[in-house]
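For concreteness, we quote verbatim a single protein encoded this way:
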Amino acid sequence: MKTVIIVVVSILVSALTAFGVVTLFFRNGGQLDQVLSVEATPVPTPASTPRPSAPAGFRVNIPAINATSEIIKNVDPFDENQYGVALKQGVAHSNTSAFPGQGRTVYLFAHSTNSPLNFTQFNAVFYQLRQLNPGNKIYIDYEGERFTYVVIEKKIVDSNDTHYLYPTDGEKLILQTCDPPGTTFKRLLIFAEPK
């Protein structure tokens, strides 16, 4: 039964996504690059929720999917209020992980969505993350340096599988978003190594 539900949801997500892309394509006068481009937009932070710091120059750039965003540093992935605020501003860096150049796991996470019409509401920077393939490059700018990573693997895991959040020896980058897009059933992980 669970498999049937997941298949039905996946079909609905695909249909809604296709409808949304076609709608935006025609609204943008046939400019497909404007339809598929996602840029994080900062939003005000509620005073009651602590805001993680966002150092100047901490950014992610993924040319293969035209995704660029600020990275919000030291976000608690287990505090829904904190990561909710951070994800409205950009991509979140897990406070359980290391930073680029430290020789350990760097873990970044962001929203996906089931429709391009929801980009603004959910700041869905990782909407097209599933399109990445081994060999694609990911650039992280951190403290004045550019770090280049190359995708080596993508994997779908259960939403409660959190062991990837903790750093291991050896520099690697993990990008995470929800899968299927716009749901919380599973997590899509992209693994990349320094080039």
Notes: The helical segments are 2-27, 32-36, 80-89, 119-122. The two ends are 43 Å apart (CA to CA). The chain has a mean pLDDT of 75.
